[in-house]
Every structure is written in structure tokens, then in C-alpha cells.
Write a structure and sequence with these properties.
alpha/beta, 6-stranded parallel sheet, two-stranded antiparallel sheet, 7 helices
Amino acid sequence: MPDFDKTLLKSIKLIGFDVDGVLTGGEIIYSSTGTETKAFNVKDGLGIKLLQEKGIKTAIITGRTSTIVEHRAQELGIDKLFQGVANKASKLDELCQAYDLKPEEVAYMGDDLPDLSILEKVGLAACPADAMQEVKAACTFISQFPGGKGAARELCDLIRQAH
């Protein structure tokens, strides 16, 4: 686990995630009938649940819309789910207002260009090891793990341990 600014980590009250490339490996698999499937990492899910036990709010903000994501969000008890979002920064404003937070009290993990608008505004900008280079350049924390393979868990554990 990397050494990280504990003051910053302790200030986080809400964590948000993109889905494809963060909570999954980024693959979108279609069956011959057109049914979409995604693979989520159980360790990432447990990391989210353990953070919730510490009182940290959770959100998913994703550009795509999928019933699979809705099901996973319900299963994990995610506080806010936003799908089909073009401007993710607008949802940050909504979250801050709903929970009376400042943007610097929010962590967000994204992996690609649509995430930059929110990553540039949060207190803790994070990404998986296999994020796009432009995203890595905007992040305070780059996980040692790729999306869907423990990146979310590593960030969750850092924040949880600081709390």
C-alpha cells in the first residue's frame, strides 16, 4: 500500500466511481442475442462495503446506461447512481449539494477522457494503472492495479485505513 497524505484521505466523505474500466476491466461483452454482460471484482465490492461501514457515501457516475450496473449498485448499496451522464462534473455539484459537501471532500476514480471533468474538481482524483495517459496526468493517486482487478479496492482501503 503506497504512503499517502493521511489528512487528505481523512477528509474524504464521499467516493465516486466510473464503471467501465474502473469497476470492470472495460470489456463490454455481447451474446449472440445482444445481451450485454460485465464482470465485477468481488474484492472491489467488499472495499466499497467496508468504506460504507465507516460512514463514507458512495456514488457511481457513468456515461453508459445498463441494467447490469443498476443491479450491481443495488447489491452494493450505492447511495447515488447516475447513468447516461455526459458531463460528470455536473453530478459532482449535485452530490455536494445533496450531502452538504465541498468538492475537496470527494474522491473519484475514473479511467478515460469523459472522467476528466470531474477528476479536475474533486479533492482526491484517482485512476487505475491502465487509465489513459491524460487521466493519469490529472490524478493524485494512480493505483498499482488495472480497472476491474483491484484498483477500486486499493483506493477504498487507503481511505478506510485513514478513517
